[in-house]
Amino acid sequence: MADLTRLPRGRHFFANPGPTNIPDSIQHALSHASVDFMDGGFLTLYEGCVAGLKRVLKTTQEVFLYTGSGHAAWEACLVNLLSAGDRVLIIESGHFSQSWARMAIDLGIEVQVVAADWRRGAEIAAVQAALAADTGHAIKAVCAVHNETATGAVLPLAQIRAALDATGHPALFLADTISSLGSMDFRMDEWGVDAAVGGSQKGLMLPVGMSFTGVSAKAMAAHAGSKLPKHYFSWTNMLGRRHRSFVGTVPVTLFYGLAEALRLIEEEGLEQVFARHSRLAEGVRRCVRHWSGNKGPALFCESRDRLSDSVTAVLMPEGHNAEAVRRTALQRFNVSIGGGLGPLSGKVFRIGHLGDLNEPMILGTLGAVEMALRIEGVPHAPGGVGAAMAYLAEA
């Protein structure tokens, strides 16, 4: 592990796919003194934050919040909607779909998986076939990771909703938006998502520690019959509280930060935020495609219509370790990029391009990575940064 006290001088470039950079104005907002979470002024701020989250989720329905990472919101989603022995259909997308499946199994839920090639993504026809074959409607929920952070690939949620509708299947539709919300378009109500899981530390540009679930009326009806044990995560318990969330102390300072994050997002404009992410993501992809010209690193995701606008996973050439590149980028150039997760450990490095980022930050990151490739003797076609520059100058 790098000694962070002996890094090169200059500003640390943080290009991990989460947590993400925290803008200065949000850091200042987070330094707000503690206040009584039942104070009228705080309640007004809190209600404004919940309304803002609904605008980002594009929902008018219920939102519940928790002190915990995105995994906490996953668990809240499962225990509030399901009972022991219920079956869920997990659409395989990578490390995080596997994690969600393991959690469900630990909670006593039966898991059925729609298998997928991680580099190409799940076939929607296979999802529809699994739903059509379930004539007894044993599947109670379909779980989809909108943006798989480990592979840099997205799932087309609107197409999954269409598969549910085409088969007339009544299963709930659950979506993980942790690394897509606030970075890529997400439409909870329009896409018929029944429970949307989100977290604070990615597109919302906050520290880790707060997560939330958008919940449809259909999901609230299912919640009434759920029998899995729950207390802190119980939506019924939350509805009885003034904040309609948080069974216990409310993390007040995070809400001052969230208010500022929502202000920044809406000041830029949500559609403009998506366009910026799309532009920066394509710049990164142009660079990686150039590097691949000499049997060098390549985009891990091979499906052009599934490429993520919040993170790019880069597959190393055979015989070369991604961790060596990451180590050199950090120790020599003070640039932090993400590593491979699960079976992709050592095979992939990941460049996050979500949250508070612009062109110079992306180009600086790509320049450091290209130098690290050269230092580590990784084959690549030099000039990838120039390819990114050429695109970004015209985009």
UniProtKB/TrEMBL annotation:
Q: Which PANTHER family match?
A: ALANINE--GLYOXYLATE AMINOTRANSFERASE (PTHR21152:SF40), AMINOTRANSFERASE CLASS V (PTHR21152)
List, in alphabetical order, the Gene Ontology terms for molecular function in this entry: alanine-glyoxylate transaminase activity; L-serine-pyruvate transaminase activity
Q: Which InterPro entries match?
A: Aminotrans_V_dom, PyrdxlP-dep_Trfase, PyrdxlP-dep_Trfase_major, PyrdxlP-dep_Trfase_small, SP_NH2Trfase/AEP_transaminase
User: Which residues are annotated as modified residue N6-(pyridoxal phosphate)lysine in the UniProt record?
Assistant: 202
The cofactors it requires, by name, are:
pyridoxal 5'-phosphate
| Name of this chain's protein | Alanine-glyoxylate transaminase/serine-glyoxylate transaminase/serine-pyruvate transaminase
What protein family does this chain belong to? Belongs to the class-V pyridoxal-phosphate-dependent aminotransferase family.
Q: SUPFAM superfamilies from the xrefs?
A: PLP-dependent transferases (SSF53383)
Q: Which GO terms describe its biological process?
A: glycine biosynthetic process, by transamination of glyoxylate
Query: Any keyword Chloroplast?
Result: no
Domain Aminotransferase class V, chain residue ranges per copy: 32-286
Provide the alphabetized UniProt keywords: Pyridoxal phosphate, Pyruvate
* Binding sites annotated in the UniProt record for substrate: 350
One Pfam match, by short name? Aminotran_5
